[in-house]
Amino acid sequence: MLSRLRGAMTRLWTPLADALLRAGVSPDAVTVVGTVGVVVTALWAFPTGHLLLGALVITVFSLTDSLDGVMARRAGRSGPWGAFLDSTLDRFGDAAVFSGLVVWYAGGGDDRTTAALALACLVLGSVVPYARARAEGLGMTASGGIAERADRLFAVLVAALVVGLGAPTAVMTVVLALLALASAVTVAQRVAAVHRQVREGAR
Ligand SMILES: CCCCCCCC/C=C\CCCCCCCC(=O)OC[C@H](COP(=O)(O)O[C@@H]1[C@H](O)[C@H](OP(=O)(O)O)[C@@H](O)[C@H](O)[C@H]1O)OC(=O)CCCCCCC/C=C\CCCCCCCC
Ligand SMILES: Nc1ccn([C@@H]2O[C@H](COP(=O)(O)O)[C@@H](O)[C@H]2O)c(=O)n1
Ligand SMILES: [Mg+2]
Ligand SMILES: [Mg+2]
Predict the structure, then answer these.
(1) Is the pLDDT of residue 202 over 90?
(2) CATH number, domain at 170?
(3) Buried b / exposed e along 188-199 (16+ C-beta atoms within 10 A)
(4) What positions constitute the catalytic site (predicted)?
């Protein structure tokens, strides 16, 4: 759903993208720095219960995931290497965000149900991009669905922000439960899309 904001994000980032390119910063550097920022923050702030700070800092670093693509396109150098690097490093970022929550709720946050739901989001959220990547590797498409990466990040970061501001843990529990469900539905949508393409190809 949030991927509809791609055009708006491109317009927002274009001046900064141009300035960074003029300063000699490469899109790959932004991809790497953004990922390291997300991973380090998620693995420090969330396990130590700093949900508000973690959500804010991770939001800033996550947003660089749309900046690197804008830079690559503005520089006329978007291609398979950048697509591979971007997607591969995204997996580290996603894993760190949900692992950080698993560690917090299994420990100091003391809520096993929420920890289990964060683990479910971690697993299901890794199957979603896998389905897309495998389909694309087989010459088909399987993008889209109700919980794409930007949607998943948005939901979990807003929940962390709200709980960090003092809302009860139940808010995180409900959001993670819905997110796990939405991720499972997204996997099913992608499996159905590939099945359709295979059937149409066989006709
Ligand atoms: C700084 C002030 C903070 C204020 C706090 C507000 C709280 C807001 C809380 C959360 C914000 C969450 C931000 C999430 C940002 C996500 C960015 C992102 O993912 O961008 C990349 C994304 C996808 O690009 P790709 O096609 O390259 O990615 C592929 C895709 O992700 C596939 O995913 P799959 O669905 O398969 O799992 C992967 O398969 C593939 O590997 C991967 O490569 O780009 C977009 O989708 C573009 C739209 C991004 C929309 C972001 C909306 C942000 C909303 C609010 C932000 C508010 C702050 C604004 C500050 C502006 C500062 C200048
Ligand atoms: N270091 C990078 C990062 C990205 N790309 C290209 O951008 C596409 C992703 O765009 P986003 O706006 O979603 O970041 C990606 O598929 C690559 O084509 C790049 O070349 N180098
Ligand atoms: Mg990117
Ligand atoms: Mg990305």
Answers:
(1) no
(2) 1.20.120.1760
(3) ebbeebbeebee
(4) 90
Sign of the torsion angle spanned by Cα atoms 94, 98, 101, 102: negative
Q: What is the pLDDT of residues 70-122, one digit of tens each?
A: 999 999 999 999 999 999 999 999 999 999 999 999 999 999 999 999 999 99
Overall domain count for the chain: 1
Q: How far is the CA of 199 from the centre of ligand 1 (A)?
A: 33
Could you tell me if the CB of 34 is within 6 A of ligand 2?
no
ipTM score assigned to the predicted complex: 0.88
CA of 103 to the centre of ligand 2 (A): 31
Q: Which residues are catalytic?
A: 90
Domain containing 162 equals 26-61+76-202
Q: Answer whether residue 70 is part of any domain.
A: no
Asked whether 65 lines ligand 2 (CB < 6 A), one says: yes
> Ligand 4: distance of its center to the CA of 111 in Å?
31
Give pTM, 2 decimals.
0.94
In a domain, 122, yes or no: yes
In this predicted structure, what is the pLDDT of residue 97? 98
Whether 1 is covered by a domain: the verdict is no
Query: Which residues are found with C-beta within 5 Å of the ion, ligand 3?
Result: 65, 68-69, 86
